[in-house]
Amino acid sequence: MSDDTLTRIHPYTRQTFLRRLERLLRMRRDYRDDLNALGFCLLDRAIATTIEDCAWCGAAGAAQTLVDAAESQREPTP
């Protein structure tokens, strides 16, 4: 993607993708006891796609920060 395209991306677009990622990560944490394997698979795919969207609009660093914070809060699985 050219630098010109990145400069034309509206800041609200970046914020929308970051908020979506934050919500999906929170859902993964909050529903960990209720989701089956398919539910986790679908949610993880949505998270991965949203991370790609964040990278596309120039917010890869902020997205990685959110993912790292979610990983540090994750409880170990027994």
What is the helical fraction, as a range of percent? over 70%
The shape, in one word, is elongated
**What portion of residues belong to β-strands?**
under 5%
Distance between the terminal alpha carbons, to the nearest Å? 43 Å
Radius of gyration: 14 Å
In the predicted model, the low-confidence regions spanning at least 5 consecutive residues are none
Oligomer: single chain
| Largest pleated sheet | none
Strand and helix order: HHHH
Structural class: mainly alpha
Total E-strand runs: 0
**Tally of alpha and pi helices:** 4
* Domain count: 1
Mean pLDDT: 89
Summarize this structure as a short list of keywords or feature phrases:
single chain, mainly alpha, 77% helix, 4 helices, elongated, 78 residues
Task: Write up this protein.
This protein is mainly α. The protein has one domain (3-71). The chain is 77% helix and 0% strand. It is built from four helices and no strands. The protein has helices spanning 3-8, 11-30, 37-56, 60-73. α2 packs antiparallel against α3, α2 (11-30) packs parallel to α4 and α3 runs antiparallel to α4 (60-73). The longest helix is centred in the N-terminal third of the chain and has 20 residues, at 11-30. The model has no long low-confidence stretch (mean pLDDT 89).
Give the arrangement of secondary structure elements:
Elements: H1 3-8, H2 11-30, H3 37-56, H4 60-73
Helix pairs in contact: 2-3, 2-4, 3-4
